[in-house]
Design a protein that fits this description.
By secondary structure, this protein is α+β, with helices and mostly antiparallel strands. The protein has one domain. About 35% of the residues lie in helices and about 20% in strands. The chain has a four-stranded antiparallel β-sheet with strand order 1-2-4-3. Strand 3 and strand 4 form a beta hairpin. The longest helix has 15 residues.
Length: about 120
């Protein structure tokens, strides 16, 4: 998870905490096992939306076959911005990390904060 978070931070997407999930106990499309999914909590709802949109674009929508990517809204911490958690299958963590690390390398330094 660390390389993914570093790429997101370098691109200006602020996170608060994360979990890599439990691939051994995750079953796609099984709502009772949602706690086994990987999770990233973004400090800003808009950052979570940017992450999901770009992830689906980079994956060419391949995530749907694995159980999808979900966004859950969360309470505010600072009374100014809404937060959000993004959930995805733990089996996709390596692939999502790879595409974001590669994408981050292609973004000019001056534009990274604009993703």
């Amino acid at each position: 998870m660390a390389p993914l978070l570093r790429a997101l931070w370098d691109l200006g997407l602020e996170t608060q905490f994360s979990c890599q999930g439990d691939a051994d106990n995750y079953l796609p499309h099984e709502p009772l096992l949602h706690y086994s999914r990987a999770q990233i909590v973004f400090a800003d709802f808009d950052h979570a939306c940017k992450f999901v949109r770009k992830t689906m674009e980079l994956l060419d929508s391949a995530a749907y076959s694995e159980g999808g990517i979900d966004i859950s809204t969360m309470d505010r911490l600072d009374e100014q911005t809404h937060r959000a958690a993004v959930w995805f299958p733990p089996q996709m963590l390596d692939q999502i990390t790879q595409i974001w690390v590669e994408f981050e390398r292609t973004v000019p330094e001056a534009a990274q904060r604009q993703v």
